[in-house]
Design goal:
With 248 residues, the protein is of the alpha/beta class. It has a single domain (4-247), classed as Aldolase class I (TIM Barrel, Alpha-Beta Barrel). It has 12 helices and 8 strands. Helix 7 crosses helix 9 (179-197). The longest helix has 19 residues, at 179-197. Bound molecules: 2-phosphoglycolic acid. 2-phosphoglycolic acid is lined by residues 9, 166, 171-172, 210-213, 231-235.
Length: 248
């Protein structure tokens, strides 16, 4: 049985003060035992959240990392730096990073390998633009993203990678994919992973859907065979909404 995994992606929102208030709130709630919950916070909040969330069961994620351990990369943060402060997961290849910060399939692949080597569990984002979907190319495009992201990663390590399917046209737009669209693509992703590694591995990999997941659509999306959880942006900023999605 694959675990359920709900991760909040705070993007560039919340000051440390606001983050700590959220942490205090979520720590007072009892997490369902069958759901893994993580929060991907801005770098400046990670150390404070690590302390504030200790004992709560909520895991900590970063939103990005560099693929080298160290070096002359002004403004960047490495995987060992994240591991040192107890970060459990890192989002890799979010479409906003691909779009605004030059992230490519090649850097995503390097980052996945480095995260795994550093003991950080990657959440690898894939997803097509509206143009690609309308052109009927979405399945091929996403399969290619998966093949390139996992290139050179052995099956024994691939099982620890979470894949987040996030169609770009559904992120922050309020226009969510239907459960059928999301479920079909997540099945296609699992099939693609199966061709790379066999079903023994692909059936173990956690696949999330992301893109305008809200309290009122979460349970329909999660009730599809190949969607094991969600990567939640906007709705993860408000504790009540995020909590409703966790319970869904
Ligand atoms: P959204 O963002 O839930 O606000 O659409 C999802 C994401 O970008 O991870």
């Amino acid at each position: 049985m694959r675990k359920r995994f709900i991760a909040g992606n705070w993007k560039m929102y919340k000051t440390t003060k606001e983050a700590l208030a959220f942490a205090q709130g979520i720590s007072s709630l009892e997490l369902p035992s069958d759901v893994v919950v993580a929060i991907a916070a801005p770098f400046t909040q990670l150390a404070a959240l690590q302390e504030a969330l200790a004992g709560s069961g909520v895991r900590l994620a970063a939103q990005n990392m560099h693929f080298e351990d160290e070096g002359a990369y002004t403004g960047e943060i490495s995987a060992p730096m994240l591991a040192e402060i107890g970060v459990d997961y890192c989002i890799i290849g979010h479409s906003e990073r691909r779009q605004h910060f030059g992230e490519t399939d090649e850097t995503v692949n390097k980052k996945l390998k480095k995260a795994i080597a550093s003991g950080i569990e990657p959440i690898c984002c894939v997803g097509e633009s509206l143009e690609i979907r309308d052109g009927g190319e979405a399945e091929d495009y996403v399969a290619s993203q998966i093949q390139k992201a996992f290139s050179g990663i052995p099956g024994g390590e691939a099982v620890g990678v979470t894949v987040a399917y996030e169609p770009i046209w559904a992120i922050g737009t309020g226009r969510t994919a239907t459960p059928e669209q999301a479920g079909d693509m997540c099945s296609h992703i699992r099939h693609t992973l199966g061709t790379l590694y066999g079903t023994g591995v692909s059936e173990k990999i956690i696949i999330q859907y992301g893109g305008s997941v809200k309290p009122d659509n979460a349970s329909a999306l999660m009730n599809t065979r190949d969607i094991d959880g969600a990567l939640v942006g906007g709705a993860s900023l408000v504790l009540e909404d995020f909590w409703t999605i966790i319970l869904a």
